[in-house]
Design brief:
Elements lengths: L10 H7 L12 H22 L5 H11 L2 H10 L2 H4 L10 H38 L8 H12 L6 E4 L11 E7 L2 E7 L2 H16 L1
Antiparallel strand pairs: 1-2, 2-3
Helix pairs in contact: 1-6, 2-3, 2-6, 4-6, 7-8
């Protein structure tokens, strides 16, 4: 299991970063998550700007969206064993992917508060630089890629998206979407309808490809 290359001066910040609202409605990681999301977004934007000097804004934006997505965040959190460290409520098992993504962001927010910008930048760069360098060609967003595949291999019909019942508390909902194309269907989840739609498209692409 990998370890984040940072030692907290205030260990209570790390504990707070790993406490989900389902476990403690008052002292939880939601505020740190808000901060960590912004810190991560800016650092990744800077990394991509320097790493791919010849790419357009749109290409950089697609890379950025993939690197800060819930899927990437939850995968990174899994590498650091967050699934065994997060304090979460009993009714949140089905949302573990999103909880881990949120905890990753809140941990980065905690590092920013504890050690400042340079410390946060160093940690994020160490983790995200290899992820960014892994794709030499800027990815297409899943919805665009699925649409192109459906038009090429199907009968010209566009993918159809259906919003299913949501889940989770009102302050932190989870949306469910089903997409159908080329005779196949897949579902996706996300903290917004947009992210759920992208997740569904990505899952169907994996089936079709």
């Amino acid at each position: 299991m990998k370890k984040i290359n940072y030692k907290f001066n205030d260990e209570k910040l790390l504990s707070l970063a790993l406490t989900q609202s389902g476990a403690d409605a008052v002292n939880n990681n939601e505020r740190l998550e808000f901060l960590g999301d912004r810190v991560l977004g800016l650092v990744v934007a800077d990394l991509l700007y320097k790493m791919f000097p010849g790419e357009t804004e749109g290409e950089l934006a697609r890379r950025h969206a993939m690197l800060v997505s819930s899927n990437t965040l939850s995968n990174v959190a899994a590498e650091f064993g967050f699934d065994k460290k997060i304090k979460r409520g009993h009714m949140t098992g089905g949302r573990l992917k999103h909880i881990m993504a949120d905890a990753m962001e809140s941990t980065l927010g905690a590092i920013f508060i504890d050690g400042g910008w340079d410390a946060a930048y160093k940690v994020i760069a160490e983790i995200w630089n290899p992820l960014a360098a892994a794709d030499l060609v800027a990815p297409k967003d899943p919805k665009t890629a699925l649409q192109e595949l459906a038009q090429h291999f199907g009968d010209g019909d566009l993918p159809e998206y259906e919003f299913l019942d949501g889940a989770g508390p009102t302050h932190s909902p989870v949306f469910n979407v089903r997409v159908t194309a080329v005779g196949k269907s897949a579902t996706g989840t996300g903290v917004s309808k947009k992210s759920a739609t992208a997740d569904a498209a990505k899952n169907l692409l994996e089936i079709l490809q």
